[in-house]
Amino acid sequence: MENTIKGATQVISINQLLEHWQGHRRLTRKVIAIFPEDELFTYSIGGMRPFADMVMELLGIAEPGLREIVTGQTAQLNEHFDHGNSKAKLLESWDSATQQLKELWAQMEGTDFQKQIVSFGQFPGTVQSALFYFMDNEIHHRGQGYVYLRSLGIEPPMFYDRS
Amino acid sequence: MENTIKGATQVISINQLLEHWQGHRRLTRKVIAIFPEDELFTYSIGGMRPFADMVMELLGIAEPGLREIVTGQTAQLNEHFDHGNSKAKLLESWDSATQQLKELWAQMEGTDFQKQIVSFGQFPGTVQSALFYFMDNEIHHRGQGYVYLRSLGIEPPMFYDRS
Fold first, then answer.
1. Is B159 a member of any domain?
2. Residues B78-121: pLDDT tens digits?
3. B115 domain residue, yes or no
4. CB A150, CB A156: distance < 8 Å
5. What ipTM is given for this predicted complex?
6. What is the count of structural domains for chain A?
7. Domain that includes residue B99, residue range
8. Do B31 and B149 form a contact (C-beta atoms < 8 A)?
């Protein structure tokens, strides 16, 4: 059983961790999709970034960060790309990263999640702490997107809906 | 080594998961502490709950939810208690729950994290999916608290500061 190591249960298995992440990514995608296109790139509260900028940060972390873990090649942190203020382009980048995560994850079998690494050449931790940081950071910023949506009079997707 | 099961590494060990959770709890505590006391109980954006109400939800989930996992006794979901609009009282409840989590966690050794459970008698999942849901929900609402703080002109604690 993939959920066990030599008969003892894992807290969370490698495959469960990917599914957990992808579930969060599906929810974040819904939040991007429900944003009015103008406000996605312009709307701000309290001097914070528009939600699209937060999404670019998430895009800059997830796939490059996992690729770095899988290949051992230091990744560059790049939180910007030319989206042309297009929601479709942002969603396309999101879906592309989701697919790449899936492909990269297929190489994670046998990975030592306790291995010390330095993400993006600057953030020391372990494979597991880096991955959880990537996910936690997505949840954090998505929660902020919820407030933006509510203040725009738009009901966000249910937090527990990971379909 | 606690990070291994019979020689193979865990994705995240039982002790690491508690430390991960407690790190998030330390950050959430900072967010509660930095809120102006009035606004903690009254300030709202887009018709959402004041941050204190979100904190009461988190208090209603974490310790009762873990106690249910440890004891097998169905917990009641109670997201309200008499805080008297006192930040000190909210922080006291937070610290009490943090301590109880630590004590309950000492009984988690040997727990089957893949066991099917029904949290609060209504949310089906596994021990691991329930625990991650509790943590993710905290990160989600805390992120919303960050927006409240920014819109009040207050700089929130750094997201990566779990000290």
1. no
2. 999 999 999 999 999 999 999 999 999 999 988 999 999 999 99
3. yes
4. yes
5. 0.96
6. 1
7. 14-151
8. yes
